[in-house]
Design the sequence.
């Protein structure tokens, strides 16, 4: 029971937010309360000074004056945000006790003065007690414990004192005190309850806001992190690049954007599976992070590409040395449960502000330097330079001319024969695209085909070239086939494949005479879509040849899964074959591979008699190259075909 009563008067720290709000409100109101008490006491001193002893009249006001000033100063200057929740509760209890104590002392002082003076001074005393108590309760409205304590320790005893007086007026005053103070206490409790609800709701809202902020920060963190490797992602990379370039708008301090691509990653996926590939990316990202200090920001851009932002890069020589240091670290084998895997890295760098002054341009040029290195010297470092700038302009100019060109008039085809050297006759012609533009002149096929693929124009070129090739092939003897190259876009586009097949039907050409040549790189871009396109071709009866065999990046395990009939061995395998035992061994192995897989094998790039004789000795019969015949325009085909029909022998140069 006593504990329950005590709890009514005691401030607990179970609701720290509520107590802190009470303290903030009271810190503004208590100085006002002290001022009201002192002013009212001064009025009592003025009216009682001539009737009561000076010691009784002046002592208490003189004591309370410095005390209230000091207390007010401490309350006003206190920094509540520096106080703990326990200290706040302790200070509220101090306010509670001091308010009741000062109230008891002031009422006792007033009642002692009551016996002095006349009816007017006694009325003033009753007026002083009532109004001062009401003012105190009002100022302590936020702390119901103080109001309850004032009511029970000050107002109730005062009311009893006046009830015991003989004059009816004082008895009426006593009733008035109880009625007004009771009403004030009721209002105080209602206000305190509503205030508590408001603060509790505010506390819940603040808590929810904190939780939402935490969740928002976490979502932002996750949105800027790569989920697999836990390093920054592409979004964070560009955000960081934007920020760092803005910081350099005035200083133009150098900054390097780098793009790193893992060479050989696809083979890891193909051989060991995607889980192993994921683990390799995780291990590679950790290895890279260990190499860098705070001057290097790393992010995963997607797939097996990583982005670098390098501050204080030093000279170009130092930058290349740093890039080689990264590549050397990546060449160290990665140990996985599936086995040991080895990859390499190719890096493209673009230096701010020389290579560009915006994030997009810097990134594009770093990417161009990367692609240039991968095409020309994989596993090395490329720094964007004027040479690259010139190449970009050329590619851009070629792409523009391709878009504006009358392709039907400007595109032409040269045909290079494929010989069966054992039988001594031509078995097919490979269609090779040529472009003669009035503005640019004759453009090498590797350049304009690559530009057409990059700019998305290849879809316009293929149908024109294929229809011209079909038209010309329809004039050949029925035993001679047409070999036509498919781009990556053509191979992975069902619409493009269907368009080619429709052209075959429309021209009434025998589909079995057509061989479509594809590259390993094109197939591995999207193996599933590519094999679907190849299946459509096979259903029409056409053949598939894997071109440039040995230069792509596919695993040998993919060969049986590809619907192919022929392998075309790249010319790099027979260069200097006469003096290279290793290359001779490779060619023997390729021959065995083709025989075991029941694939026809065509050797490309035969350019000398010695190569021809050595390959013939190895048992190869299908060959193509300058030694046998250069590509010729359509106008030159009748002579080659006539010679082939008359001699049924390999050209004189072969017999040479």
Sequence:
């Amino acid at each position: 029971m006593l504990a329950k009563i005590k709890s009514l008067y005691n401030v607990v720290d179970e609701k720290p937010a509520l107590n802190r709000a009470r303290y903030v409100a009271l810190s503004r109101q208590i100085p006002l309360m002290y001022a009201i008490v002192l002013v009212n006491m001064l009025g009592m001193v003025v009216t009682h000074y001539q009737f009561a002893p000076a010691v009784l009249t002046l002592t208490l006001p003189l004591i309370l004056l410095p005390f209230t000033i000091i207390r007010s100063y401490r309350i006003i200057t206190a920094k509540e945000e520096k106080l703990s929740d326990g200290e706040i509760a302790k200070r509220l209890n101090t306010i509670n006790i001091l308010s009741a104590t000062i109230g008891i002392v002031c009422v006792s002082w007033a009642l002692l003065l009551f016996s002095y003076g006349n009816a007017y001074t006694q009325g003033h005393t009753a007026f002083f007690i009532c109004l001062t108590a009401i003012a105190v309760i009002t100022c302590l409205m936020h702390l119901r414990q103080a109001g309850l304590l004032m009511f029970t320790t000050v107002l109730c005893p005062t009311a009893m004192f006046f009830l015991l007086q003989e004059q009816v007026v004082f008895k009426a005053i006593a009733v008035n005190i109880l009625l007004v103070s009771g009403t004030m206490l009721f209002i105080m409790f209602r206000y305190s309850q509503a205030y508590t609800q408001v603060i509790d709701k505010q506390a819940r809202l603040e808590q929810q806001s904190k939780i939402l902020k935490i969740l928002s920060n976490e979502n932002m963190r996750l949105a800027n992190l790569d989920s697999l490797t836990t390093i920054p992602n592409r979004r964070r990379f560009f955000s960081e690049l934007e920020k760092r370039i803005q910081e350099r708008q005035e200083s133009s301090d150098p900054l390097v954007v780098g793009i790193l691509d893992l060479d050989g990653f696809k083979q890891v996926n193909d051989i060991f599976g995607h889980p192993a590939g994921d683990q390799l990316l995780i291990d590679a990202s950790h290895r890279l992070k260990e190499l860098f200090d705070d001057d290097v920001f790393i992010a995963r851009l997607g797939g097996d590409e990583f982005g670098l932002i390098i501050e204080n890069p030093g000279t170009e020589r130092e930058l290349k040395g740093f890039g080689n240091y990264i590549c050397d670290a990546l060449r160290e084998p990665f140990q996985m449960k599936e086995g040991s895997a080895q990859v390499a890295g190719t890096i493209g760098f673009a230096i701010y502000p020389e290579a560009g002054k915006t994030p997009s341009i810097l990134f594009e040029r770093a990417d161009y330097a990367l692609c240039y290195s991968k095409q020309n010297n994989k596993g090395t470092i490329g720094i964007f330079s004027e040479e690259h700038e010139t190449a970009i302009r050329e590619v851009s100019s070629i792409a523009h001319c391709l878009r504006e060109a009358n392709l039907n008039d400007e595109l032409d085809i040269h045909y290079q024969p494929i010989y069966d050297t054992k039988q001594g006759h031509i078995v097919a012609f490979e269609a090779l695209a040529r472009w003669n533009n009035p503005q640019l002149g004759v453009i090498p096929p590797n350049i304009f085909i690559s530009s057409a693929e990059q700019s998305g124009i290849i879809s316009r070129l293929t149908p024109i070239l294929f229809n011209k090739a079909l038209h010309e092939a329809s004039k050949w003897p029925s035993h001679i086939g047409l070999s036509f190259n498919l781009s990556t876009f053509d191979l992975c586009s069902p619409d493009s494949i269907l368009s080619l097949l429709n052209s075959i039907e429309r021209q009434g050409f025998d589909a079995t005479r057509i061989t479509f040549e594809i590259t390993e790189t094109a197939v591995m871009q999207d193996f599933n879509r590519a094999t679907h396109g190849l299946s459509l071709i096979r259903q029409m009866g056409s053949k598939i040849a894997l071109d440039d065999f040995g230069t792509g990046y596919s695993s040998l395990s993919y060969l049986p899964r590809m619907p192919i009939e022929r392998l075309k061995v790249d010319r790099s395998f027979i260069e200097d074959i006469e003096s290279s035992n290793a290359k001779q061994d490779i060619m023997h192995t390729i021959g065995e591979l083709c025989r075991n897989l029941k694939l026809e094998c065509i050797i490309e790039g035969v350019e000398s008699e010695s190569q021809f004789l050595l390959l013939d000795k190895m048992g190869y019969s299908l060959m193509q190259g300058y030694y046998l015949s250069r590509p010729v325009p359509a106008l030159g085909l009748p002579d080659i075909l006539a010679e082939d029909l008359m001699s049924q022998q390999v050209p004189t140069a072969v017999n040479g």
